[in-house]
Amino acid sequence: MTQSNERKLTIARAMAEAIAQEMRTDPGVFVMGEDIAALGGVFGNTRGLLDEFGHDRVRDTPISETSFIGAAVGAAQDGMRPVVELMFADFFGVCFDAIYNLMAKNTFFSGGTFKVPMVLMTSTGGGYSDAGQHSQCLYGTFAHLPGMKVVTPSNSYDAKGMMTAAIRDDSPVVYMFHKSLQGMGWLGTEQGASVHTPEEDYTVEFGKAKVVREGRDVTIVSLAMGVHHALKAAAELEKAGVSAEVVDLRTLVPLDRDTIRASVAKTGRLIVVDEDYHSFGVSGEVIASVVEHDISVLKAAPQRVTSPDAPIPYAREMEAFFLPSPAKIVEAWGRMKAA
Amino acid sequence: MTPSKKQLHWMYETMVTSRRFEETIEKIYLEGKQPVFNMASGPIPGEMHLSNGQEPVAVGVCAHLEDHDIVTATHRPHHEAIAKGVDLKRMTAEIFGRATGLSGGRGGHMHLFDAKVNFACAGIIAQGMGPAVGAALSRKMQGKPGVAVAFIGEGAANQGAFHEAMNLAALWKLPFICVIEDNSWGISVAKKDATSVPRNDVRGAAYGVPGVYVGGNDPWKIFEAAGTAVARARAGDGPTLIEVETFRLAGHFMGDAEGYRPKGEKEALFARDPIPAMRKRLLADGTADEAQLKDMEARAEARVAEAIDFARSSPAPAPEDALTEIFA
Predict the structure, then answer these.
(1) All domains of chain B, ordered by start, with CATH?
(2) Is there a catalytic annotation at residue A229?
């Protein structure tokens, strides 16, 4: 169904457009990161910004994440709105002190007298054999630590609106974009991620999950790339006469537990799809949100489709075995039905 | 300190092996990725960082190293792995993601580990600094021979890990050498736009260790500087910081359009290709004749071909083996 006025953007372009629009209206917004200026970001999400705004506001940095993320905290506290990029979420290890001990805590430590209105955007996800230091999602790692909002768009409409909301937010926001949704051909691209995206600026409210497909028999809760797996699985299940509802979490912090609960109360069955590691993470949190609220709504034990608790392997055969997929979601339904 | 004839022959043959290897990998990497370039496709998926042009650094340093000496390398590791004597067949199989690879397909091209020759590399900038310093500490504490060399790029000299590790190595007077391969680009960002000093050798002063700069991507000069540093480390006199001017003849990774390079830079670099230059000099000063050079080149070709054949004919790993080798 193509609208005559449809304006499809990739997530990369949607992110860049949101940043540009905010930079035009707010001189305090600037961008820092590795390869974000002339190159326009390794994943394309700052393309065009250098030409319009120049090197003063679009700053390539040295490979010094501790310093430039720490510096963003200082600039944000001093009244600016930095948007900084950590090229891969996997690289958080070199700079996490600046993120979770400064960015996330200074508002609290200062009794709210210091604000840290910055956006930390970072790429996530595997599926193209980039091995164990360039493929992680780490959603649970970031969402676990209090003091930072964490958002995970699955399509370009949300990507743009969430970037605008993130820049305008007075709290720090970790903006996690999945490489396979970016619309960069060299990474392969999930076509469903590029959707109608209005040209004018708008925001997508944090803490509101979205029912992206309605159904009666089972709720599939997911985020980012997993939403597309879930939609494909739901289409498969439909052929077998199973009506699956798909919930896109969109933001992890704050987490919209009400929408999850309402959907599971309707279907009675829950499958959580999360490309992050299995244990101690998002999938467990989603299930807990339901069972600690009202266990009686469940007609079957919840199922999880996640990455195993192991480093992400390089070899294609191993990685395919490792990552969630539509087929694994259908299998999870099979286990649930059999149980 | 000048290299012997035997060392020069090894250096040349190793440089040619590395180059032939990279050229072959480059071709195979593109299989299945045309006309649409998708990193996930073809016999070698994922990122691929080639070392064409940087071979002099690897051979100039590794000519002084034994199997028991330690090397940590970067995301661009092939030239150093080959110069350090990593099993080429198993390394190639790892790059192809095969069961016979160094780690059975778990690590891939950025995560090559060969315990027999004390070689490891990693995918994140400056990550090799700490482990190399730790290996040097271990040898010193245990009274065992061996020096540790961390190869890093010029971009890594702006990471905290670089500065912290240099200080620790100097403080504890460890048998450690940091070799900065300055190829002047950190992906798209030029060294001059990322580093507060034109040359990183001056940073040695911050840690009270000798800082040495080697220009020209010249195997002889690199050999000399590394020889002095290795001798100093073996004598228990502590670390050295060496920065080597080199260049990459390829992009940051395969698929890099290199639009950030000034016009004409690439052509100028190819005119300075260190392999033809070394060949010419070896002939001119009589260190090798045409027949010897051809023999070395033929051996290099054959080794690479054998490694590629081994990888191609090796089986894929069992998918479920992704869940093994997680704990010791």
Answers:
(1) 5-315 (3.40.50.970)
(2) no
